[in-house]
Amino acid sequence: MTRTRLGVHSEVGRLRQAILHRPALELDRLTPDNCDDLLFDDVLWPAKARTEHDAFVQVLRDHGVTVHLFGELLAETLHSAEAKAFVLERVCTVQRLGTALAASVRALAEDMAPATLAELLIGGITRADLSPLHAGGLRWQTLGLDDFVIPPLPNTLFQRDNSAWIYGGVTINPMAMAARRRESIHSRAVYRYHPLFREATFPIYYGDDDVDHQPATLEGGDIHVLGRGAVLIGMGERTTPQGVEILARSLFRAGQASRVIAVELPKSHALMHLDTVLTMVDTDTFLRYPGLAPETLRHWSITPASADEIVEQNNGGLAVEQRDDLFGTIADALGIDRPRVLCVDADGRAAAREQWDDADNVLALEPGVVVGYERNTVTNTMLAENGIKVLPIPSGELGRGRGGARCMSCPIEREGI
Ligand SMILES: NC(=O)NCCC[C@H](N)C(=O)O
């Protein structure tokens, strides 16, 4: 078993361990009819996507990062009868499956080998997959052979979003989009029952219960662990102020962070998460999409409120102060003069095209060394000219789900700065 010192103490400190997901059956089940609903802009060539993903994993391993594959973690988790029951109780519900199917699908799933069950939970279950089943009920009769009894979760590829480590603990995120909500059930099971996490003690800040969290949603692509006790959170299409408040309170209570900076983002698909337009590439350096004008972004600095402030301001325990210079606020939090902000601003069209292809969504492996899609030549050249080393990975297929190297990885052990 791998040495585990779980915790993510910065965005750019040396990355030691991360969870990635090698895309499997779920990509074969993406069609022109369902890809929009499943938050993909196109269908993919699955075999090629897997080869590209293998190349990504290899770059990380060559750099000394221990990579855990989520499909394997889930399969190993489901070896435990308790874990299987935990997942099936939450997936095979009457609301999701109908009264007749809930019990019969659950009975079939109980008998499956853990690896098969993990594959189908992520890849989706069609009526044809259940062919020996003779069920009654309206739902069963309305389903065509190829229809999904349980839809696939192709965005499991983007491990960044459904859980996020922040300093010594993790948040298991209530996801904004219906197409991604079941992902969090799988992560809850892995963090509870997988041997990598089962014996460890760490706070779970949010989401590890069966409460209906909507609309207090959070997604990891919006969460940046800046380091030195600070956390930057984007509020755009996916993360709401209610979600940020709950997380901030929990982080402060656990003594894991001393300041949260919440920044409002334009609500658009191209900018669905903060990390599609802003990532950290060195201890004092950010990569920013030039279409995102920081001076126009409203942002707030959130710290734990004193007892007096709680009474005077009725603020729910959070001292919230609106600020007017985002990178100035970040500099304060990091105790530096002013961060360096790199931008492709010579060619607006190239910047826009490359942002769409996740040029600004790089994953730092250590200060000044990042992984990014090879296709984004203008951004990668600009980074190299500014002393940032880019390790390129292929992206012809992978990028069609609209996520880059940062989106596809969930760091679980990373050093501070
Ligand atoms: N952090 C990220 O920006 N993740 C990319 C998620 C893409 C996925 N298709 C989604 O819409 O949720």
From TrEMBL:
SUPFAM superfamilies (UniProt xref): Pentein (SSF55909)
Chemical reaction(s) catalysed: L-arginine + H2O = L-citrulline + NH4(+)
A Pfam family recorded for this sequence: ADI
Keyword Hydrolase carried by entry: yes
Source domain of life: Bacteria
Keyword terms of this UniProt record: Arginine metabolism, Cytoplasm, Hydrolase
Catalytic activity, EC: 3.5.3.6
Record-stated family: Belongs to the arginine deiminase family.
PANTHER family in the cross-refs: ARGININE DEIMINASE
Protein name per UniProt: Arginine deiminase
Biological source species: Cryptosporangium minutisporangium
